[in-house]
Amino acid sequence: MPRMQGRIHLVRHAEGLHNLRNDPKIPNAPLSERGFDFAEELGHRFIGEYSNCVGAIISSPLRRTIQTSLTAFRRILDSTQYAKNSGSGVNNGVTLALDANLQEITDLPCNTGSTVDDLTIEFPGLKSEIQKLHKDWHIKAGPRSPLPQPLTQRRDEILDRLQKIQADLQNKKMSDDIIVVTHQGVIALLAPTANIPVGQWQTFHLVRKNGLLFLE
């Protein structure tokens, strides 16, 4: 059973406002104020354990996952992805990639993303990545939805992308660990036995069994 070199760190976003208030009606729920603190703590713990080993960070385009990524991994991400003169990010750091397949599964208001234009206004440092998203990326079902159906296909597309990213990092002789910032529903899809609370992570390897990719 071939095990891929490099690790996949599955991160569940920090506490969202909808978690704090138990209110799924909050549109594209952001982090709570406490959630930002939790994300900073997550970043300190992660760096303490995995310093200088991350070659890529990929996130769901929902607001709380982007906020978690930018807050937790400011010592890994490139400074151009932050507001000018913010003091965040590092020179020649990692670029935060966005993947609509990593957005939460359900179409509750808290799990439904913003338009490409609104995201660009809110996160101008990520404009180039946001512009790569399909204009209907946040539509979960129906003929307008660009998301792969069924969910097993969505899982396979995520794992295929992670394999390609790792292969590219290895070809370039770069650090080949990947951080994936996502949601409970997607974590259950990728690693059904995982139990990752908000603001925490678990580390996996990509393995291939009978021609299919899995995390274990």
Could you characterize what this model shows?
- The chain is α/β, with parallel strands linked by helices.
- It has one domain (about 5-215): Phosphoglycerate mutase-like (Rossmann fold), CATH 3.40.50.
- The chain has helices spanning about 15-20, 35-50, 65-70, 115-120, 125-130, 150-170, 185-190, and strands at about 10, 55-60, 95-100, 175-180, 200-205, 205-210, 210-215.
- The strands form 2 sheets. A 5-stranded mixed sheet has the order 3-2-4-1-5, with helices on both faces. A two-stranded antiparallel ribbon has the order 6-7.
- The relative contact order is 0.24.
- The model has no long low-confidence stretch (mean pLDDT about 95).
- This is DNA, SC111.
- It comes from Aspergillus oryzae (strain ATCC 42149 / RIB 40).
- It holds the Pfam family His_Phos_1.
- One of its GO terms (cellular component) is cytoplasm.
- InterPro entries: His_Pase_superF_clade-1, His_PPase_superfam, PGM_Phosphatase.
CATH topology: Rossmann fold
The CATH H-level homologous superfamily: Phosphoglycerate mutase-like
What is the number of helical segments per DSSP (H or I, 4+ residues)? 7
Q: Looking at the structure, what is the overall shape?
A: globular
User: Strand-residue fraction?
Assistant: 5-15%
Distance between the termini: 11 Å
* Strand runs, count: 7
Numbering strands along the chain, what is their spatial order in the largest sheet?
3-2-4-1-5
- Biggest pleated sheet: 5 strands, mixed
Organism: Aspergillus oryzae (strain ATCC 42149 / RIB 40) (Yellow koji mold)
GO molecular function, one term: phosphatase activity
Protein name: DNA, SC111
